[in-house]
Each structure stands twice: as C-alpha cells, then as structure tokens.
Amino acid sequence: MKLATLTTNTYHMLNFRNTLSTLGPRVLISLALVSLTLVSGTTTVDAAQPNIVFILVDDLGYMDIGANNPDTFYETPHIDRLAASGMRFTNGYAANPVCSPTRYSIMTGRWPSRVKATNFFAGRRPGKFLPGKLVDRMALEEITLAEALKTKDYRTFFAGKWHLGPTEEFWPTKQGFDVNKAGHNAGGPYKGGKYFSPYGNPRLGDGPKGEHLTARLADETVNFIRESKDQPFMAYLAFYSVHTPLMAPKKLVQKYRDKLTKMDLSDEGTFADEEQVWQNSKKPRRVRVVQSHAIYAAMVESVDNAVGKVINALEEQGIADNTIVCLTSDNGGLSTSEGSPTSNLPLRGGKGWIYEGGIREAFLIRAPGVTQASTTCEVPVMSIDFFPTLLELSNIKHDAVDGKSLVPLLKQESKWEREELYWHYPHYSNQGGFPGAAIRQGDWKLIERFEDGRTQLYNLASDIGESVDLAQKDPERVDELKSKLHAWYKEVDAEFLQAKPDGPSPWRAE
C-alpha cells in the first residue's frame, strides 16, 4: 500500500513539474499546496462541510477483518484498503455487547444507560433473576447525528438495520433522515426471502427475485451519493449482515467450502468449553475457536464487496477527498450461539458478553486532510465518540455529550485524555452472557457481575484473552475501580437485576 501510494504521488509530482512553465503564479501556488498534501499522504478537504459516509456492520467481529487479523479466514480487501487509507483504532469499542444500545450511542453520543436502553430493543430474557428495566425506543427528544447535521443543510440518508424503535414514529425519517431504505423495527431480515428478494421489508421495495440484500443496500447508497454529490451529505449504511440468519450467495459459499477443503480443516478442535450462565440448560454452551464457517465467510465477503462499491463510488464521483468515511460494528462477533459462526480469539467471548470479544470492534476513520494513511491508534475509544468527532469535523457545535471528539487523535496530537470507559449490561443475553458491568482504565479492566457482585480484574496489555483474574492479588486496584464504577452507576441512574415474584433478591451496588 505504501509503495502504491508513493508511485501515485510520484506520478502527480512529475505532471506538476511538466506544467509549471505554462501556468500563472496564483495557480502555481495552489498546485504547490496540492503537491505538498500528496507528498504528506493526506488530501485536502472542505473543512467547513465534508461529506460523511458511516458504515455499520452488524455483528462483525474485531478479528474478522484482515487489517486487524492477517490470519483471518475471511477475505476483506476493501475494508482493509479503507483501514490503510486512514486511522485504525486497535482499542475501539462498542458501548454495549448487543446492537440497539450501541446504535443509540452512535446516534446521540450518550451512554445508553442514561435512558435505560441497555439491551437489544425487546430483549427481556429472565435468568436466575429478572433483568433490569428496559426502554425499547430512542426518544424523539434526542438530538441525533442526522438532526445535528441538518442544521448545516446536510442531506441525510439511511439504509439497512435501524432497530431503534418499535413503531413508525421512531424510525429514521422521524429522527433526522431525509431518506430511509429498509430501516424499521426488526433486528434482522426475518421475513420473505430474508437476505434475498422478496424481502418483506416495509421500507424497502422488492428487487428481482433472488436479489441480494447486502448488495442492494450498497446500490441504494451509491445512488444517493451520485444524486447528492453537489451538496453536503451523510450516508449512513447499516448492513443487516453479518447478523443471522446465516445466508449468502451460493457461489461465494462454494468458494469458501473449496477453501476449507484446500486447507484440510476438520471439525475437531473447532469448539471449546464456555462459561455456563443459564440455569437448567439442557446442552452445555460452547464457543467457536476456529474461523471455518463457509456461509459466514461468504457473508463477510459480501459486506466487503458492498463497502468496495461505496468507496469506489466516492472516487468515481470525484468527492473522495471531501468525504469522511467511518466503519465499525455494533458488538462483537457471534461465537457462542445461533450457529456460532465466527471465532474472536484471542479475545474472550463474543456478542452478548462484556468480555473483549463482545465489545472490541473494528473501528476505522478516514478523514481526508486530517488523518494520514496507514496510521494506528492504541488509545481506548468508544462508539459514543463518533457523534462529537463527526460534528467537530463538520464545524457544528452541539450540547455536551458523554462521548469525546477524537479529532486530536486523528491529527496525532499528544494532548488527549479520558480516564475511563464503562459498559453496563443488566441482562441475560441470548448468547449466554451474564448480567454485569465493566470499567477500563488504562490497561486495566474490572468486571462486576450483577447476580452476586463478584469482581474480575484483568490487565489487557499482558492478558488480552482475560484468562488470568488478578482480583485477589490486587485488592487495592479492585477497590479503586469499583469506586469509580459505582460513582458512574449513580451518574447514569443505572438499572440492576430485579427479584422474581417470591424469589431471592439479587446483588445491588451500594
């Protein structure tokens, strides 16, 4: 990538020199500035009103993309190209281990716990105790990212999975989006042909029979980009993939079946034992530890191809240098249920768990004129940070939120501090995860379990797999982090587990 970039830049420099003698002094100055930006690896951008493309991939694991995991079984050249063109965050997190809360955090820049939006909307599974109270909609009073951008006359577009309200009054066009393609209450494509037309989606017309939903959403986004290229816009592409049901185009599935045959992978050693949380489970829960699911691999590649379509469209329309592109996921890869299609190793757990596998995400930002190509950032950041970051890059003021602008990090400035990140999940997840909360401070992560108040302490710098619990060896640090976590509970009015009728009372923070 660096060699290709150097070759392209050298070509532009030669053309620049060859035209010097025919141009006036003002044009020479302008070309010189362009030349300097080419050499530095950045491009100019209309700082006042850059376009924004935000790509959200449902259930994509941190280790699923080549940029984060060169040994991944899946093929993601377009996402890797995006990562190489901007900044890749190696400690980027979702605000929650399941979808709706993280989607809320991106839209508002706020902790989901403030409004009790702490599980996927409609998720109320009981376990030993009843879950915490859940609000299952993003209130219309919230100022969304789309609404903030419209104060500067942005045209706004949404495509894909919304899952932020049960009825039409809470869907995208009521929350600041001019156009909505496929966004409604459902958390997945569960009707009609599911991932293939006819879709049975109330906000997306059917295409030709057998049309692939992932490709269709990319096509709708590309059409919007072409129609809007002459005015500032935000295109928010929230794929339903790679969420279940596990379905993909047959040719791609066969490609990965052939790949498995060549690799001579057997089923032996594909799964390992997992922590058991649900009571009276008939079958012990297991976790996938090898990436070898052909259908899931095809779903990942389908998303990657769709991302490539969108990036190519920006280049074809001549607006790539004035468009910020972000890509992330709403939670970790699905590794412990519903087919357990991916492995997040060396990260522990997956979707529905507050271990790293459930909350650490692919987290990419390319902001032309701000980010340099092929840069990485190890500072822990979270989905709540997108809101203030994108508004600062768009020169739009906003009220205080919980997220913090990442612009200083994108510029590789040293002055940027945030002491802690928090997660709060007072629910029994469909994937087997336990109710609890977590705090990360520097390399340290404390987990507090809500059934009994038990704590776990990990040093992520030396133990990214969260395999060595240091709570008993470092009680002072446990007390310090617990104190901060409990103070945060009060700040956000956190919910906890509830007793069943005539049942015992669960643990509750003081």
Low-confidence stretches: 1-46
Helix content: 25-40%
Radius of gyration: 23 Å
Structural class: alpha/beta
CATH class: Alpha Beta
Terminal Cα span: 53 Å
What is the CATH T-level topology? Answer: Alkaline Phosphatase, subunit A
Overall pLDDT level:
91
Strand order of the largest sheet: 5-4-6-1-9-10-2-11
Domain Sulfatase N-terminal: 50-395
GO molecular function, one term: arylsulfatase activity
EC number: 3.1.6.1
Keywords: Calcium, Hydrolase, Metal-binding, Signal
Structural overview:
A hairpin with a 5-residue loop joins β15 and β16. The chain has a single domain (47-411), classed as Alkaline Phosphatase, subunit A (3-Layer(aba) Sandwich). By secondary structure, the chain is an alpha/beta fold. The chain has helices at 2-19, 25-40, 77-84, 99-108, 145-150, 213-228, 250-263, 294-316, 356-359, 386-393, 407-410, 475-492; strands at 51-57, 87-89, 92-93, 155-160, 179-181, 233-239, 271-273, 286-288, 323-329, 363-366, 375-377, 381-382, 421-425, 436-441, 444-449, 455-459. Residues 1-46 have low confidence and may be disordered. Keywords: Calcium, Hydrolase, Metal-binding, Signal. This is Arylsulfatase. Belongs to the sulfatase family. Pfam families: Sulfatase (PF00884).
